[in-house]
């Protein structure tokens, strides 16, 4: 998925390609939302820790995409938070042991890798 017209953004004086971070954020958001639906279907409460983690991740991914698209001064912070939270989500999903969770872990790790370059520019 290409993001039209978004080849880079000025972050702290450095131009960085952000397409990968945007696409990875969108994929991770979709995976978190799908995982939440599965947990609800299995009877998990909305206020449980796994649901809170997934909800935070989905919401942060959305915020990150919007910040990057707007060339917001906060985009480095949202990318940093995405990097940190996606690593937590990936770890939790992998340790879950459910094969269905491995796709979520993969998407969360992909997000962490895509956002990492934005942290050091």
Automatic annotation (TrEMBL):
Which InterPro entries does UniProt cross-reference here?
Csp_YhjQ
The cross-references to Pfam families, in alphabetical order and at most eight, read: Csp
Top-level lineage group? Bacteria
Protein name listed in UniProt: Uncharacterized protein
What species does this protein belong to? Cystobacter fuscus (strain ATCC 25194 / DSM 2262 / NBRC 100088 / M29)
């Amino acid at each position: 998925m290409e993001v039209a017209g978004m080849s880079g953004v000025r972050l702290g004086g450095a131009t960085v390609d952000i397409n990968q971070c945007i696409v990875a954020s969108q994929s991770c958001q979709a995976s978190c939302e799908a995982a939440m639906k599965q947990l609800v279907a299995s009877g998990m409460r909305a206020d449980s820790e796994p649901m809170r983690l997934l909800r935070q991740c989905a919401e942060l991914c959305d915020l990150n995409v919007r910040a990057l698209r707007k060339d917001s001064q906060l985009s480095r912070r949202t990318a940093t938070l995405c990097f940190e939270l996606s690593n937590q989500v990936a770890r939790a999903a992998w340790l879950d042991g459910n094969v269905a969770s491995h796709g979520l872990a993969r998407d969360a790790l992909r997000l962490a890798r895509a956002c990492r370059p934005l942290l050091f520019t």
